[in-house]
Design brief:
Keywords: Coiled coil. The protein is an all-alpha fold and about 190 residues long. The protein is about 95% helix and about 0% strand.
Length: about 190
């Protein structure tokens, strides 16, 4: 009985020791489990927070994407409008350029025509001037000849005038002599 009692006592002590060991292991596991639960809770909170931030980021991204798409569409529309305006302006400038080019060609043709006409006119004027110069030289020569002849005639006329004047003076003297002679003859009574 004592042996059985001791044996049972030993078994109880072993069972208590084992129970104590299991209890410690359970407490250790409970502590570890508590740590795991707390870590899991923190992870869940962190995950929830990350999900919230991800959702907000996704919403912000969608808003940004929408705004960017609207801005891109607006910029695309503005670019198309600017391109249309520039294209119209380019057409207008091209037409103006073509008009100016045509006017330039017309002016060049007109300039060439006027240049040719000017050259012809210059040649005609040169010929006329040469002809007039020749006529003038000829006329000057003729006038010089005429002046020379007139001077000669003037000399002859002066000479003739002097001769006529001398003859006139002689005639007047003779007339005076005849008058005096006539008066003298009239005074003579025998001749009356």
């Amino acid at each position: 009985g004592v042996f059985l009692y001791n044996h049972l006592q030993q078994k109880v002590r072993n069972a208590e020791a084992l129970a104590q060991k299991y209890k410690q292991q359970q407490e250790a596991l409970s502590a570890q489990l508590q740590v795991v639960y707390e870590h899991r809770s923190r992870l869940e909170r962190s995950l929830q927070k990350e999900r919230g931030e991800h959702k907000k980021t996704k919403e912000d991204f969608l808003v940004y994407k929408l705004e960017a798409q609207e801005a891109l569409n607006k910029e695309k529309q503005d670019s198309m409008n600017r391109y249309g305006a520039l294209s119209s302006q380019h057409k207008i400038l091209k037409n103006q350029h073509d008009d100016v080019k045509k006017q330039l060609l017309d002016l060049q043709l007109q300039h060439n025509s006027l240049k040719l006409e000017h050259r012809k006119s210059l040649e005609t004027h040169s010929q006329k001037f040469a002809q007039l110069q020749q006529e003038k030289d000829s006329e000057v020569t003729n006038l010089q000849d005429t002046v020379f002849k007139l001077r000669e005639e003037s000399k002859l006329l002066r000479k003739a005038h002097q001769e006529v004047h001398s003859q006139l003076l002689n005639a007047q003297a003779q007339m005076e002599e005849f008058r005096q002679l006539k008066e003298a003859l009239q005074k003579m009574p025998g001749l009356r």
